[in-house]
Amino acid sequence: MQWTLVIPLKPLTRAKSRLADTAADGVRPGLALAFAQDTVAAALACAAVADVAVVTDDRLAAHELGALGARIVPDTPADGLNAALAHGAGVVRRLRPRVPVAALNADLPALRPRELERVLAAAGEFPRAFLADAVGVGTTMLAAAGDGELRPAFGAGSRSRHRASGAAELGLAGVDSVRQDVDTGEDLRAALALGVGPYTAAVSAGLLIPEP
Prior knowledge:
By secondary structure, the chain is α/β, with parallel strands linked by helices. It contains eight helices and seven strands. It has a seven-stranded mixed sheet with strand order 3-2-1-4-6-5-7, with helices on both faces. Strand 2 (49-55), helix 2 (59-68) and strand 3 form a beta-alpha-beta unit. Helix 1 (28-44) runs antiparallel to helix 8 (198-204).
């Protein structure tokens, strides 16, 4: 099964505000872009992924992620994360009806293609399925096979909302890189321990990450 991934990315100047204790205002946009670059590069290297659509209105991000091979979809709704994901999935399905679609966070800098392949294979067993984040509160991936609607409910506490919506929760072990999104300095430390991609490694090299 070949999936299309939909990855949302807000304007870089507004991204990753919770990393203020780790990265200065002038550094955070570059860090957010690096996260997205490593995420997209790893996703495109996954054998189960046919293509990646990035929903963004950020011109720099569109240029850099497009150069990696992502399709750029303008965030026409401009109404937040879930509207962007629904819009991106709609664009994908108009081009390729019934293609399996999965929403993936843009801040998975340690993402491993083989682990993502395992998650997508498991998701393909259900009409809708999701993977909880490392802390067990949010969601890093939501998948809809066939012509099923994605029905994204990302944001704080999204794990419970996706479960309540009828999506199957994937209880896979050994897919830490797909669970480890980065919102805080502690998250970044965990991602670095897993081993991040080259873009994040370069940008984070000079950061002093606070101890827990």
